[in-house]
Amino acid sequence: MAQQGLTVPVVAVVAAKGGVGKTTVAASLCAALAATGLRVLAIDLDPQNALRLHLVADLAGCEAGLASALLHQTPWPHVMRPGRSGVVLLPFGSIDDEIQLDIERYLAQQPDWLRQTLDSFALPPDTLVVLDTPPGPSVYLQQALRVSQLNVVTLLPDAASFATLPIIDRMIGKYCGPREDFLATGYLVNQFDASKRLARDVLQALRDSLGERLLGAVHLDQAVSEALASAVPLKSYAPHAQATHDFDHCAQQLMHRLGAATLLPGTASAARPTFPSEPSHRA
Amino acid sequence: MTTVQPPAARSAEPKALLRHPAARALAWLVTLVVLPALIVTPMTLHQQLALSIVILLAALVINRLKGRIPSLVLIFLSVVVSSRYVYWRVTETMYMDNLLDLVLGTGLLMAELYAFVVLLLGYMQTAWPLERKPVPLPADPALWPTIDLFIPTYNESLSVVRPTVLAAQSIDWPRDKIKIFVLDDGRREEFRVFCEQVGVTHVTRDNNRHAKAGNINAALKNTSGEFVAIFDCDHIPTRSFMQIALGWFGRDPKLGMVQLPHYFFSADPFEKNLGTFGTVPNEGELFYGLIQDGNDLWNATFFCGSCAVLRRTICEEVGGIAVETVTEDAHTALKIHRAGYNTAYLALPQAAGLATESLSGHVGQRIRWARGMAQIFRVDNPLFGRGLKWPQRLCYVNAMLHFLYGLPRLIYLTAPLAYLLFGASVIHASASMIFAYALPHIFHANLTNSRIQGRFRYLFWNEVYEAVLAWYIFRPTLVALINPKLGSFNVTAKGGLIQEQYFDTQIAKASLFLMLLNVVGVAAGLWRLTWVDPDNIATVWLNLAWTFYNLMILGACVAAANESRQVRSAHRVELRVPATLYFADGHTMRCHTFDFSSSGLAIDLPASVTADQAAPLQVGLYRGDTEHRFAATVRFNRGKRLGLQFEPMDFAQERTLVQCTTARADIWAARWGNHPRVAAHRVIGHIARISAVGFRDMFAHYLRAGARKLRPAPAAAAATAGKEPT
């Protein structure tokens, strides 16, 4: 089993429990990272196939995705969708529940499937891969944690998030800990409401216990859900919203931890992503 | 000269090289042999010019080097050149052949000797600022001492005192070891109720004897904390104040007082009226940035009445706060030093307050300081008496001499007129000799001071600050020197409201009179240039140039008297920090504050919003990473500027607000003493522009006044006058 590091950094967005806005966080981070001039490949590892709602205008094109490519039904270039904000999306695809079980069985047998697949893409060096994963332990999370250099653990400033943190930390320790190319885990508090005493206290407790590992807090903001409903990226829907600012801040923190200087190409903003396996626009 | 001596044993930065016996021997050789020789050797014009150029070039080369040793060398060169000038002035230029020349000439010489002494003492005082760092307290707070925190007040409104009390309650110190006392000499019911509600002690006495000093002394008798911290009622302390200030007391049992700087987050009248807030170091910055730090080396830090901590035993041993003079603070420090105790200065802004509102208030405050210092000079002269070391004596003397600048400054502002108007020759020397001696003296003094003071005081600004005050402090200091018992304590008015932009003719009167004299002098000079005085063209030009310089300074003084209007009753302070707006519909906006007061905030928005007047919203302010939200309503919505008024708050919220806005050492410390050095020609250009505005304002004012008198319909005239921009 090849364990050498990938040529491009991989960020896994993970969560211990559902409903913390992880997919929103993944999409917003993708947009914020792409705005800095990086090429961003967003891979949806969640069978809910929801990342497309945030990143792609043309939803119909996301029926075929990672799942069908994995099953060799569609070539990889054909399932990549050019998304908004300069992000390229590899959707999970909409699939039947029995096929999903087959895929999960396959992934359980091929622990390095994602690593090998990413290797086969031969991505250019100024690319960043962002993985969206389903909440809680799953084969998808295992796959993601076997390749990620950096994890973004999404949580809410509430008791449940606090209590379920050890689950995700255990998995990270198991799959990322031994890897030499693994850098760090960052924590992102989503839907922070400073008017709630509990939220403030939880955030403070997290600050105290996590220190530098806390990437930042994203404010609860009506604009986030409205942007999703209007199928417009948050950054264009509400460029001055506090949540937009917070995501930018978290993305900067991420870049900082990745050692952004080595990532950014000299003329970053000039060139928009042109992937080697440029997806044809319509199959 | 003491300038090349090594720093005292207390120095934080001992230089082994300077302590070497050979270095000491060399220093004494230079001081006793070379220096006198350089000063007294008579020279012809050409020799003097050659010497001046050599020293000047040496100074310019040395000035390119960084560090303190080159500064000391520059001080040495400046002392040589200025001493040479003064020696020449006294010995060669005072052969007067008529009484007028002798009287005016002696006057000018006295002013110059005064300036020379102050220059020398200033060099000594600021040669090697100590830059003391705070000392940590014991790790266990149980070992920390008890503190009584005094907030004396007399007639200031509760809205001014409130934030100070609330901020004092937030100071990070064991709750059972700090007690807060509001010393209310106004004996106001409103204050008593507030103190009771918020949980601090309201202290009154049955008389107002000895004003603030008496107020504090009365409270000292009824309290028992090991340390006494004193804050003027509008100096808002930060949470970290005590932990920064108290450390040194643990290290030095003979330490009687620790002083921290007074920082003002609002513009003083000079800054407000001249538009120099944040761009030109203000009047106080030199004192707190450099002079106090320089004093500290000589163990001569002065107590400044606020933002300071006293050790109770020592304070009581010297009889409490001194009551003999109107500057009780400086006098108390003098007594502490005389008793053999130490004081310390920490150049870290840990409290901030409002600057005096109007120029007249500012002048009143300076008059009090000047009078008090002159009083101490008379009743407890630091040159004499027991207990002081010589450097301490000299630091005190310089502080007192400084406030005697009134008369010398007036002499400088009128000296060239002696020749231009009366043909009086106040310096008996040729213009070329004056050039050869005086120019190097002026140049070196400015070069050296600009190097030492550059971050805290720009060149020539000194002259503006002093010229405004000269006339007003000249009389009280003279009176106090003659009879120190005359004169009363006047409280500095703060938080007032300037209703209308107006030209303070009362305060500007002296400047206007001097200006008129100088304009007449210019006319006389031009007249002399034509056919009257063909033999002395160079002298005429010399005096004319001096007069023009004086006019420039006076123009700036007049500009300072043009009071700009203050829009709202609560004092507004400019402050740009991140903030978040929360609209009622759940939307948010990242923005920055523009300014704030106790009642509201103005916000700079990245994009305009639709928010109606009186619309409720919330604003999030940050202290470090922690965010606090405050309910507010929209007062105005103008493009990208939103005015918010806070909803009524409870004490806890108000305390939090103070912590998010005024009690922010992190912001003040970053601003303070960090002015970029500015080249002399830029400073002159800036003052000249301000001066031009001063002339314009003055003419506009008198034109309006004249028009009002001429026009029969007063209503119409008043209406136009009110609208006219100045």
What are the defining features of this structure?
heterodimer, A: 283 residues, alpha/beta, Rossmann fold, 8-stranded mixed beta sheet, 13 helices, 8 strands, globular, disordered C terminus, B: 726 residues, alpha+beta, 7-stranded mixed beta sheet, 6-stranded antiparallel barrel, 25 helices, disordered N terminus
Verbal overview:
The complex is a heterodimer of chains A (283) and B (726). With 283 residues, chain A is α/β, with parallel strands linked by helices. Chain A has a single domain, classed as Rossmann fold (3-Layer(aba) Sandwich), CATH 3.40.50.300. Chain A is built from 13 helices and 8 strands. Chain A has helices spanning 22-35, 51-55, 66-70, 76-79, 97-109, 113-121, 139-147, 159-175, 197-210, 222-229, 234-237, 242-258, 260-263, and strands at 10-14, 39-44, 81-82, 87-90, 127-132, 150-155, 184-192, 214-219. The relative contact order of chain A is 0.20. In chain B, the strands form 4 sheets. Chain B has a 7-stranded mixed β-sheet, sandwiched between helices. Chain B has a 6-stranded antiparallel barrel with strand order 14-15-16-19-18-17. Chain B has a 3-stranded mixed β-sheet with strand order 5-10-7. The longest helix of chain B is centred in the last third of the chain and has 31 residues, at 680-710. The interface between A and B is medium-sized, with 18 and 19 residues.
